[in-house]
Design goal:
- The protein starts with a helix and ends in a 5-residue tail after the last strand.
- The protein has helices spanning 2-6, 19-31, 38-52, 58-65, 96-109, 115-132, 138-147, 155-171, 175-190, 193-196, 201-216, 229-233, 241-246, 260-263, 268-275, 277-282, 291-298, 303-315, and strands at 76-80, 88-92, 151-152, 236-237, 248-251, 256-259, 284-285, 288-289, 322-323.
- The chain is mostly helical and 328 residues long.
- A three-stranded antiparallel beta sheet has the order 5-6-9. The protein has a two-stranded antiparallel sheet with strand order 1-2. It has a two-stranded antiparallel sheet with strand order 3-4.
- It has four domains: 2-65; 76-147, no CATH class; 151-239; 247-323.
């Protein structure tokens, strides 16, 4: 667990007191403030505020020691409840610096924890960052959303990643687990997208894959042959879903999703042959399909028209990006 606190040691210039000691001294001074006369207390407080500048938390320390703000040291991202004697707490979230450092650590090393542990930690960090108005790096924030299980992906894409695990397990002569993975991948591929994200089913899948990865040693292949479960199960994080929605077109009557970039390559002649020249003219700009007009039309199209559109897309070699249960 040494790595969990490693981020607390910051680079030069060398501060006169390390971070942990500073936090202990602040808490000690605060809890014993009634034992000091006013002038001596202010002197000690100002000394600690000066040291706190090395860690960019001087405003927080000043507000606690000299501004009458309550001292709260109970918020942590990760609590190791299984530790001997009493729970051990890691990744404190008392101020913006700690929140950013905790986010950075978890995004890089979180896979060392169980999925349940890192998922809770990510949710805590995101919550505290929002509460304290801390702006996280966009890439790190997206990573935390995935770790927290706040994202979606297509079942086809998820299935592909599970098949990769099955292949790797076979190479490692773990045929029994490999076959389990193959069966699971096929089940997920056939599952409608909204069913996977119903009643924490996706979280249970991530937890199961995480356990298998750790038990079989697959974690050493992360970033090369395979990725941690949250990377593909929650591959489109909640903070990116707006951009995701703007990049796809849904055929609501059949439940199929298409990338706009793929639909833009649809053969206008085939569209005209299927729906007539007037329709084709309305849905195109010059010789290209207007994907926004197509998207709007698909919301009102009949089931027969929607199915015919899917057939035309298939003839044009346009792949379905995702699929869910269709609207009646």
């Amino acid at each position: 667990m040494a790595e969990l606190n490693a981020f607390l040691i910051l680079p030069s210039p060398q501060p006169p007191m390390d971070y942990n000691t500073l936090c202990e001294k602040v808490e000690e001074l605060y809890n014993n403030r009634d034992k000091y006369d006013g002038q001596e207390y202010v002197k000690q407080a100002e000394k600690l505020v000066k040291i706190a500048r090395y860690y960019n938390i001087h405003n927080e320390i000043q507000s606690v020691l000299l501004g009458g703000k309550s001292l709260n040291t109970t918020k942590y991202a990760y609590n190791a409840t299984g530790a001997p004697i009493k729970p051990r707490h890691y990744l404190p979230l008392r101020n913006p610096t700690e929140i950013k450092q905790a986010a950075q650590w978890l995004s890089k090393w979180g896979y060392r924890l169980s999925f349940a542990e890192r998922s809770r930690a990510a949710a805590e960090i995101l919550s505290e960052a929002d509460h304290k108005g801390v702006k996280l790096d966009r890439k790190i924030e997206s990573q935390l959303y995935k770790i927290a299980g706040l994202g979606v992906n297509t079942t086809d894409e998820i299935s592909k990643h599970i098949f990769k695990r099955a292949k790797l397990l076979s190479i490692l002569d773990l045929g029994g687990i490999a076959r389990e993975m193959e069966t699971l991948a096929e089940e997920i591929r056939k599952l409608p997208m909204e069913e996977l994200y119903h009643e924490k089913r996706a979280h249970k899948l991530a937890q199961r894959l995480d356990e298998i990865d750790k038990n079989t040693g697959l974690t050493i292949y992360y970033g090369r042959d395979i990725e941690p479960p949250e990377e593909f199960i929650f591959g489109v994080p909640a903070n990116d879903i707006h951009d995701y929605k703007n990049s796809i077109v849904e055929n609501v009557k059949t439940g199929k999703y298409y990338h706009k970039s793929a639909l833009a390559k649809m053969d206008v002649l085939r569209l005209e042959q299927a729906f007539g020249p007037e329709f084709a003219d309305e849905m195109t700009i010059d010789t290209y399909v207007d994907v926004d007009r197509i998207g709007a039309w698909l919301k009102t199209a009949s089931k027969e028209e929607a199915e015919l559109f899917d057939y035309v897309a298939q003839l044009c070699g346009i792949k379905v990006y995702g699929e869910k249960l269709p609207q009646e």
